[in-house]
Amino acid sequence: MTEAHVASVSVEEYKKLFTAELEKERAEEQARLARSVPREALLWMALAPGWTIPLAERCGFPAGRGGVRKVFEQLQHSGLIESTGSSHGGKQKAETAYYYMSNSERDNVLSQYTSSEARFAPLHATLHKIGGRMQPALVKMRDVPAPLRRWALLAANARTTQGMSRVFDKAIEQAFR
């Protein structure tokens, strides 16, 4: 093919085409992941600030047949979650790793539930369920970030907005004493 037959593409057009192709590939990867990871697992990961494998197991994280470790590995491999410690350092390292979803991925997952009032309503129940399971599990655990403990307390009271507000207001009052 000669140079005359090659379409000239500006750098800006190339960037747009390249970005569109990356987004397409990412959407395909997420679709594959969605078929292998329970949808509820993505929601739990998006709602909570983070998880360790032992905490997720104690809370009954909805990992499906593969178990928590496998689901976390799949989510991390696909780029949907990150961890503070490497899960590639064997079982001991994976047990202490803190897995969390980036803000952009969290937004992607939660946007599926916040697009309408009908879809938004189950989030309170799910928050309440996670917090209700996480709070007693955290009592028995050491080395858990304080923000996660505070989140679990709020989430455990998430059945109603008033419940969360009451806990939040109490914490604010105590902070200023």
Q: Could you give the topology of this structure?
A:
Blueprint: H1 11-36, H2 39-47, H3 53-59, H4 67-77, E1 81-83, H5 91-96, E2 99-101, H6 103-111, H7 117-139, H8 146-156, H9 161-175
Antiparallel strand pairs: 1-2
Helix pairs in contact: 2-6, 3-7, 7-8, 8-9
Q: What is the compact description of this entry?
A:
The chain is mainly alpha-helical and 177 residues long. It has helices at 11-36, 39-47, 53-59, 67-77, 91-96, 103-111, 117-139, 146-156, 161-175; strands at residues 81-83, 99-101.
The arrangement of helices and strands along the chain is: HHHHEHEHHHH
Summed up, the helix count is 9
What is the overall shape? globular
Largest sheet: 2 strands, antiparallel
Report the end-to-end length measured between terminal Cα atoms. 78 Å
Estimated share of beta-strand residues: under 5%
Q: Using DSSP, what is the number of strands?
A: 2
Nearest-angstrom radius of gyration?
20 Å
Sequence stretches where pLDDT stays below 50 over 5 or more residues: none
**What is the average per-residue confidence, as pLDDT, rounded to a whole number?**
83
Q: Helix fraction?
A: 55-70%
Strands in their spatial order, largest beta sheet: 1-2
What structural class do the secondary elements suggest? mainly alpha
